[in-house]
Specification:
CATH superfamily of chain A: Oxidoreductase, molybdopterin-binding domain
Number of strands of chain B: 0
Structural class of chain A: alpha+beta
Oligomer: heterodimer
Shape of chain A: globular
CATH architecture of chain A: Alpha-Beta Complex
CATH class of chain A: Alpha Beta
Number of helices of chain B: 9
Largest sheet of chain A: 8 strands, mixed
Strand content of chain A: 15-25%
Order of helices and strands of chain B: HHHHHHHHH
Largest sheet of chain B: none
Number of helices of chain A: 9
Distance between the termini of chain B: 29 Å
Structural class of chain B: mainly alpha
C-alpha cells in the first residue's frame, strides 16, 4: 500500500485558534492565579518545584505555556495524576494502570489515519508530532464516576492534527481507537469491555480549539498509565470520552459505535458532556469530589460543560442534552 | 467448673479474634492520623483517594465478616465443636461496626454531610436504599445481640436474627449494583452467600424429611427443634444455634 506523504501544517492553520480567547483563563491571569510557580515554562525547570515533581524517568518536553489555559484551581500533584487512573486496558482498579502499564512499548508507535479524508495511511508518530509545537494547558478533568482533577497537560490542538489529513465533506465524525494488544495490555486478556477501546466525536467537536491532543503532563512525556504516547483530552466531557494510547483515527460519515455506550447504553451516552443536571442512573452528577483535597473537604458543585460552556455550548444548540447525554 | 477448653476460648481465642477483626479499622485509623495530623504510624496508606479506599475497606470488611459469621454454624456441624458458637456474636457485632463505618464514611468524607444529597441518594438510588436497609437490619441485630435481649426475646430472638441472611443478601446486592463493569468480586460474594444459605435450607429440608419419616403419624409440620446449648457448663449463655 502506498502511503501518501504526510502533509505539512500551515502556520495559519494553528495560530488563529491558538490564541482563542478564554475568559476564564484571562480572568485567572488578571488575578495572578497563573500557578506559574508550579509549572515549568518553556522547558525550563521551575525553581524549587514542590511536591509535584515528575518522575525522573520521563523525558522533558519543549513547550510553551498557553496563557489562556492556566490554573484557576490548584493542579493535582504528579503522583495523583499518574497514580489514580481509569485505564481498563491495564486493570480495573485505579492503581492498576500505574502498576501494570510498564509492559506498554510506546516506541516505535504508528498512527493510522483512515476513512473520509484525502490523506490516509500509516504514519510514524514521531514524524507526525514534529510539525506541532507543544503547549501547556491546565485543564479540569471530570470523571463520570464523580471525581475530578486539575491537570497540566502538554499537547496541541486536536483540530490542527486532523486538518492535516484534509477530511472530506463526508467526514461527520471522527473515531479514536486504542491499541489492541493483550501482550502489552494485560487488562485486555479479560473481556471486561469489548476491546479495542473506541471513542469518537462529532467532527465539529473534534475541531473545537478546546479539544487537545496530549503527549505530556507536567512538562514531561506522558507516562504509560495516562495513555502514552498519544491521547485526547476533552475537558468539557466525562473522562471516558478521551481515548488513550491511540493507534487509529478514522473519519466517518456515521456516528461511531463507542465502547461504553455499546456496553451500557442506558448509563453512558455518545456525547457524555459534563452536565450537573443529568444524573447518571446510579449516582448524582450535581457535585464532584476533587482528588487530593483530603478527607474532610467539601464537594465541589459540578459546572455545566465542566465550566467550559463559553467555548463549547454553541456546539449543542438545539440538541436535547437530556436525551443526548 | 470451667474446663480448660472454655478458658482457652475466653482468654485466648476470643481476644485474638477481636484483634484480628480490628485490623482493618486500625489500619484506616493509623493512615487517617498520618494524613490529618502528620503522625508517622506504620500503615500502608490509603492512596491518592483515601475516601474511596475507606469506603472499600469498611464495606469489604463488613461483607467479609458477615460471611465469616455465617460460616460458624456449618463449621460447628463439621467439627462438632459447639464452642465455636461463642465467637459468633463478636463476629456479628464487628460486621455491623464496619457497615456503620462504611455508612459514616459515606455521610462525612464522601458526601460532606450534605444531608439533602444523602436523603436524595437514599430515595433515588436503589443500591443506596438497599445498603441502608441492610445497615438498619444489622443495627437491630447488634442491639439485640446482648444476653439481656436474648432472654427477653426468647424464641423470637432466633427468628429476628434470621434477618442476618436478608442483610447479607442486601449487602452483596448493594455491592454488585454499584460495580461498573467487573463483577467478579460481587459474584464471588454472591456465590459464597448462596452456598451458606443453601446449606442451611438443605439441612432444614433434610431434617424435616427425617422427622416426617420418623414420626409419620405426628403433625406433618415438625416444629424446629428447640435449641439447647451444647455446652451447659459455660458461664455465659450461648446463643441458640441458627441453622
Amino acid at each position: 500500500m502506498r502511503t501518501p506523504k504526510l502533509p505539512h501544517i500551515r502556520p495559519s492553520e494553528i495560530t488563529a485558534e491558538r490564541y482563542f480567547r478564554m475568559r476564564r483563563g484571562l480572568l485567572a491571569s488578571a488575578l495572578g492565579l497563573a500557578g506559574a510557580s508550579l509549572i515549568p515554562a518553556s522547558g525550563r525547570a521551575a525553581p524549587g518545584a514542590p511536591a509535584a515533581t515528575p518522575a525522573a524517568g520521563a523525558a522533558a518536553l519543549r513547550y510553551t505555556r498557553n496563557p489562556h489555559f492556566v490554573a484557576v484551581d490548584k493542579p493535582n500533584t504528579y503522583e495523583e495524576i499518574t497514580g489514580y487512573n481509569n485505564f481498563y486496558e491495564f486493570g480495573i482498579d485505579k492503581t492498576d494502570p500505574a502498576a501494570n502499564a510498564g509492559s506498554l512499548r510506546t516506541r516505535p508507535w504508528s498512527l493510522t489515519i483512515a476513512g473520509e479524508a484525502e490523506v490516509t495511511g500509516r504514519y510514524n508518530l514521531e514524524d507526525i508530532l514534529k510539525a506541532h509545537p507543544l503547549e501547556e494547558r491546565i485543564y479540569r478533568h471530570r470523571c463520570v464516576e464523580g471525581w475530578s482533577m486539575v491537570i497540566p497537560w502538554v499537547g496541541f490542538p486536536l483540530g490542527d492534527l486532523l486538518k492535516r489529513f484534509r477530511p472530506t465533506s463526508r467526514a461527520k465524525f471522527v473515531e479514536f481507537t486504542t491499541l489492541l494488544d493483550p501482550q502489552q495490555m494485560p487488562g485486555q486478556r479479560r473481556g471486561v469491555l469489548d476491546w479495542p477501546y473506541v471513542e469518537g466525536l462529532r467532527i465539529d467537536e473534534a475541531m473545537n480549539p478546546l479539544a487537545l491532543m496530549v503527549v505530556g503532563v507536567y512538562g514531561r512525556e506522558l507516562p504509560n498509565q495516562n495513555g502514552a504516547p498519544l491521547r485526547v483530552h476533552l475537558p468539557w466531557k466525562y473522562g471516558f470520552k478521551s481515548g488513550k494510547s491511540i493507534v487509529r483515527i478514522r473519519f466517518s460519515a456515521r456516528q461511531p459505535r463507542t465502547t461504553w455506550p455499546a456496553a451500557w447504553p442506558d448509563e453512558y451516552g455518545f456525547y457524555a458532556n459534563v452536565n450537573p443536571n443529568v444524573d447518571h442512573p446510579r449516582w448524582s452528577q450535581a457535585t464532584e469530589r476533587r482528588i487530593g483535597e483530603g478527607l474532610f473537604a467539601p464537594r465541589h458543585p459540578t459546572e455545566m460543560f465542566n465550566g467550559y460552556g463559553e467555548q463549547v455550548a454553541s456546539l449543542y444548540q438545539g440538541l436535547d442534552l437530556r436525551r443526548n447525554f | 467448673m470451667i474446663s480448660q477448653a472454655d478458658q482457652r476460648y475466653r482468654f485466648v481465642y476470643k481476644p485474638l479474634l477481636f484483634l484480628a477483626c480490628s485490623v482493618p479499622l486500625a489500619w484506616v485509623l493509623a493512615a487517617v492520623c498520618n494524613l490529618t495530623i502528620g503522625t508517622h504510624l506504620p500503615a500502608p496508606g490509603l492512596g491518592v483517594d483515601p475516601v474511596r479506599r475507606m469506603l472499600g475497606i469498611f464495606g469489604h470488611s463488613a461483607l467479609n465478616l458477615l460471611l465469616v459469621t455465617l460460616c460458624v454454624s456449618p463449621l460447628r456441624v463439621l467439627t462438632g465443636n459447639a464452642r465455636l458458637l461463642r465467637l459468633r456474636r463478636m463476629l456479628g457485632v464487628w460486621a455491623f461496626t464496619y457497615a456503620l463505618l462504611h455508612f459514616l464514611t459515606y455521610v462525612g468524607p464522601f458526601q460532606g454531610f450534605s444531608w439533602s444529597a444523602i436523603v436524595k441518594d437514599l430515595v433515588k438510588r436503589p443500591y443506596i436504599t438497599i445498603g441502608f436497609t441492610a445497615l438498619l437490619m444489622l443495627l437491630a441485630l447488634a442491639i439485640t445481640s446482648t444476653n439481656g435481649w436474648m432472654r427477653r426475646l426468647r424464641r423470637h430472638w432466633q427468628s429476628l436474627h434470621r434477618l442476618v441472611y436478608v442483610a447479607t443478601a442486601l449487602g452483596v446486592w448493594h455491592y454488585w449494583w454499584q460495580v461498573k463493569k467487573d463483577i467478579r468480586e460481587p459474584l464471588l460474594y454472591a456465590a459464597l452467600a448462596t452456598m451458606l444459605l443453601g446449606w442451611r435450607l438443605w439441612r432444614r429440608q433434610r431434617d424435616a424429611l427425617r422427622a416426617a419419616r420418623a414420626a409419620p403419624r405426628a403433625a406433618p409440620r415438625a416444629a424446629p427443634p428447640a435449641s439447647v446449648p451444647a455446652t451447659s457448663n459455660s458461664a455465659l449463655p450461648t446463643a441458640p444455634e441458627r441453622t
